[in-house]
Amino acid sequence: MTGRGHFVGSCDATAPLISDYLDRLLEILAPHFEGRKYLFGARPAFADFGLGLQVYEMALDPTAGAIIRARTPDVLAWAYRMMEPRNDGPFESWNELCPTLEPLLQNIGNYFLPWSTANATALTTGEENFSVDLGGQAYAQSPQKYHARSLKVLRDRYTAVPDKTVLDPILETAGCLAYLS
Q1: Which is it for the CA torsion 33, 37, 38, 39, positive or negative?
Q2: 158 near 180, Cβ under 8 Å?
Q3: What is the largest CA-CA distance in the chain?
């Protein structure tokens, strides 16, 4: 897979940002999974399948896996639990989730959604490469069609929510709303 590194944005120039992103993600997820089985409570949601399985794949990598095992055993347990997820109870309320889930949404608004939007724009305009400022650092790579499609799905699902009275303030506070509407 080393030959595909540039295609997915992994190179010497982006390595520090990728490493920092993993550290930040684990710092955010660790307190969230103290005593909680899934992202939104006692049963899995779509988000668990998306993020949990990415963390599971990282856990298989010798370097990232060692970091995850050493620093965040509850996050690792969640990733493994996603191999055989179960409904063990209800979703929690936003008031219960907010203290530890809002930082994850803010991280998405600061990193993933700006990157995904720049990626989709590059595909639309036919660019061979794109660059986006993430956390004060330039991140450059070739655009990826899959991620443009996933952004479209996120936007379509957001649009399909009939009453956004509760959702919009959460997304606005997290810095996500501007990328979805």
Answers
A1: negative
A2: yes
A3: 47
Model confidence, pTM:
0.90
Show me where the domains of the chain are located.
12-92, 94-181
Cα of 110 vs its chain's centroid, Å: 10
DSSP per-residue string spanning 85-97: ----SPBPPHHHH
Q: What is the pLDDT of residues 102-149, one digit of tens each?
A: 999 999 999 999 999 999 999 999 999 999 999 888 888 899 999 999
Its sign, for the CA torsion 27, 101, 53, 117, is negative
